[in-house]
Amino acid sequence: MRFREWSRSPCGPAPPTARGTPNAPVPTRRRFPGQGSRAGPGGRLSGVSPTDRSSPTDGAPTGPQGGPTGPLTSAQIAAHVGVSVATVSKVVNGREDVAPRTRALVEDVIRRYGHQRQKRAARPAAVLELVFRQIRDSYHIEIIKGVQQVAREHRLALVLSELQGRQTPGLGWVEDVLYRRPTGIIEVYSVLTDTQSGQLRARGIPFVLVDPNGEPAHASPSVGASNWSGGLSATRHLIELGHRRIAVITGPEDALASRARVDGFRTAMETAGVPVDPALVRVGDYRAEEGLTHARALLRLPEPPTAVFTCNDALALGVYRAAAEAGLRIPDDLSVVGFDDLRPARWTVPPLTTVHQPLAAMAATAATMVVELAHGEPLAQTRVELATELVVRDSTAPPRSERRGT
């Protein structure tokens, strides 16, 4: 298994010594179908004058009206904007060391005309590419395990990419993917733009989203868990124990999974006739630090909650820390329910009651769908939801008032 950040993929042409050699380690660059040759002797780009910046289409195929019929190379974009090819490469790959005005000019040309890198190979590589928004905890390890299982069964390598926290891949991401030409892509907790989805489909590279962070474009295939049911069962469990002051610490508001879990929470409260106090609803970002910050604030309220439902296990760990700081015991003074059922949930003191979502199975399902699409097989359904299940451990109990019979 290899790890690669998408912004660091090789993109240069093959050295002269590699040309014409069948077993050369670096393949020769090829033209995209339907595009004329842009390379002259020695690999230099033809049709581009470094001093003529009046049109971004210099050297590019043009239609009857003089407009471009295909995307532009980095050299053509650089010549038009008046910057170096290296600067264009930095913008395409999401680098931060570019002046804002320069970045805006380059991005404007790319949006208007497109940017195209030469393909490395005509045949797909025997590789599955697993793309994360960021990699930081055991949630991501479970996803990797699931994809690795399917990759091994089909004798495919696995490459990991990280978007460095970005919700949507940058401008150069698709070009890098087209260069690598993997068998397929699994995107985790991020979302593709309509343009990116269309580019992948046009090149025959299948993709499936896992827990998409936003509405998938044009019915893109996706896999998730029954998040609404999970939020419902977690909250019902607390209500059945006798809790009425129940707080919820959510994930990001733009995350579909988090919104569904909170909707399940609200449904359970409304069905039981328990009002939802807005002061007890806190928006986090799935990190333990956020759980700690929000739990501290909740426990300082004049009427603090007797129970907290967190939309993932990491947030619950932060609640544990805040309770300890306040001198409260779990579950005697405060009940806590998480979501995910990651391995650390079994080893907390006390062990965490949480909603199990089958992360490895979700990832394996997504990888299987990608392989089926790569083989030209139609999917039985484009949206798959796997069942969640409440796992009751030792972090929940009736509130003190119930135990006293009041």
UniProtKB/TrEMBL annotation:
Q: What are the recorded GO MF terms, alphabetically?
A: DNA-binding transcription factor activity; transcription cis-regulatory region binding
Q: According to the lineage, what is the superkingdom? A: Bacteria
* Descriptive protein name: LacI family transcriptional regulator
> Which segments constitute the HTH lacI-type domain?
72-126
Give the lineage.
Bacteria, Bacillati, Actinomycetota, Actinomycetes, Kitasatosporales
Region: Disordered; residue ranges are 1-73
SMART domains to which the protein is assigned, alphabetical: HTH_LACI
Q: Which UniProt keywords apply?
A: DNA-binding, Transcription, Transcription regulation
- Note the InterPro entries from the entry: HTH_LacI (IPR000843), LacI/GalR-like_sensor (IPR046335), Lambda_DNA-bd_dom_sf (IPR010982), Peripla_BP_I (IPR028082)
